[in-house]
């Protein structure tokens, strides 16, 4: 018993340094992982699709894809997994950690870049480094997908206006025959400068052991 | 620039005419019946010899409205006057200047009245009824209606902590310490008992929304700090009301029991929640009413104002918190009313609210100054000095202590700079004064009033004047000035959904989950009830986009020129070259179309004229060349028309929902046709002129 405990503690230590979560948070998330995966080692897309609360989310597919996207693992690989283990699960969730009080400006900038990179990867589905007009249109369409037919027609107009806005801010003097390829990561950072991602894009991870939320499936 | 001398003269004239009839706004109109009788007498006396009076003087008839108008006019002229001296208005906040003006006016009135022997001073004082029923509601309504909801709800926990716990701490600390001070033999304050001290503490402890607004509006501080201090000043009204009534009852009864204290706590919950409930009810009813105003657009703004005012008065009837009721009404009503009313009504509401709140604020500060001069004062050095010091100390301690606790629960912690601004921004104002005025008449009352006025002056003058340089010195973050762009809006919504999704994956029901649930409830049930037409199903992103397009179209039309381009990037740069632009024109609501059409048509006159002048200018250059053929002119006109249409497409994002598309369809083709006949005449004249020149050369 002693050895297994120290082994799991060591495993958690490793994760603590990699992801920045505290051991209690990792323990809680592990419980949730086991709930989702029905006590197996890995989870697949179907496991996440079956979470009932996600059913109403208009960007459900993008969120689930983000978990299986190799680019979010900080390891310079591309493509997507079929199944992910607990470590990959944690790595994705580490993007949503809240900022701490004692952060220097460089730390804040680094974290903002990381979070923006995560968002960028969600939009840039073909991984060519830019968000093209078609991809951006898809994003807006998905956002308005729960709003009926009015949404689909308006999505095009809104995406076009938004793209024009990005192009105007970043490349103000384009000649009529130049073509704006797509939103690069720098342009993306530029247009979302005002939103202060490092303080907005986070969720509260539980430190204390909360009673497990039933995710709608019966655990045997 | 009006010299100070002229302005003082103007001031004196206004004041003496206001005073000329021995006025006092809270004077009873008892002697009104005398004058007509006197007139009758004199008329009967001269019945046979007097001719028909062509001109007669009857001032009593209009005295009250005349006085009120004169006071308001005076206040507004003062406000105008300050901005003629830019250096002063830069350093000194407007509230200070207004109080000084009030002091001057009060002094003048008192000096003019110094020969009157009666003790009842004729200087008008800030009447409590006037203040609470007429002067305060417009300011609170303006603040509540335009409250930034997102920031408010994100920081609600912090705001409530500061408002409730902070105010309680202030009240008890000040009250307790003042009692200790009063026990000192040298101060001669032995007759002030504990309950009176606590009552005094509860009056002086509350941060005042009017003063905070007046000072913070000018320093443009970032939204977080603004909403913390301002939210606290609004929500502490419930605490103040309860404490005030509690201690007043107790000081009459003399003793306090445990049940009384317990009832006090219950009273607090009843007062605050009851106030909010009344506000919500009126807000929902108001939103529902606005659903049916399609055919009577002109009275739409009145509904907003009247429902809110009724909410305030209804809450005051039951001694509940009127301020919280007013805020709740404004917040509840706003999203639905704005979806229902016309654009003009929206503008009307905005400007009327700003106007009323501005007038109220000005009047309040002037009256504060006047009342200072008027009221009987009992100056007790120890009491006053200790009050001021204790107010500052308790505020600092309270903020620091509470932040320490709050930061354990906040994600975005409050830094030392933030804490300093929150502590320093705790200004006291007219509410404290009015509450003090309501006290029963005792010797202590005048002493309390003097102390309250001193604290108000200290906070408004010293803290109000120094907060701006301190904000600059500490490099506190300022307000973001630009409006949200469409990209930011898209990503804000995206982020909301993303965070809700991640929370669901992690399995805990946090902040985002409940917000999402509330939004969905709102969309499926409430919006259908309260919003008319098909706007009830319009998603937020689309309404944001429509508003943005409307704003841009109006800017375009108002500037009158088509060539107002911030950048030369156009749709051609974005569309891939092989795709053909689809020109699909979906249906937008007829009502919307009509509105847009009317607005654009009413503004097109300007553009039409400018286009004609542009074309005339272009044509003028050519007559002195050899070839005066009509064909060349026509070619140039076509060229110009093409250029116009090309620059127009730079802004035409997509023909479907773009209002600029409608502009191009409707308006800009018209001037080119309408001006043709006139230009033919011009061209003929130019040809003649060229021909003549040719002959004589």
TrEMBL record, chain A:
InterPro entries: CHP3, EF-hand-dom_pair, EF_Hand_1_Ca_BS, EF_hand_dom. SUPFAM superfamilies: EF-hand. PROSITE patterns: EF_HAND_1, EF_HAND_2. GO terms for molecular function: calcium ion binding; protein kinase inhibitor activity. GO terms for cellular component: cytoplasm; lamellipodium; nucleus; ruffle membrane. It is found in: Cell projection, Lamellipodium; Cell projection, Ruffle membrane; Cytoplasm; Membrane. One of its GO terms (biological process) is cell differentiation. SMART domains: EFh. Keywords: Calcium, Cell membrane, Cell projection, Cytoplasm, Differentiation, Lipoprotein, Membrane, Metal-binding, Myristate, Nucleus, Protein kinase inhibitor. It is a lipid-anchor. Residues 111-146 form the EF-hand domain. Belongs to the calcineurin regulatory subunit family. CHP subfamily. This is Calcineurin B homologous protein 3. It comes from Gouania willdenowi. The lineage of its organism: Eukaryota, Metazoa, Chordata, Craniata, Vertebrata.
Automatic annotation (TrEMBL), chain B:
One of its GO terms (biological process) is sodium ion import across plasma membrane. Residues 25-34 have a biased composition (Polar residues). Belongs to the monovalent cation:proton antiporter 1 (CPA1) transporter (TC 2.A.36) family. This is Sodium/hydrogen exchanger. Keywords: Antiport, Cell membrane, Glycoprotein, Ion transport, Membrane, Phosphoprotein, Signal, Sodium, Sodium transport, Transmembrane, Transmembrane helix, Transport. Residues 565-638 form the Sodium/hydrogen exchanger regulatory region domain. The chain crosses the membrane at residues 68-85, 92-111, 131-147, 159-181, 193-216, 223-247, 262-285, 318-337, 358-379, 385-409, 421-440, 446-471. It comes from Gouania willdenowi (Blunt-snouted clingfish).
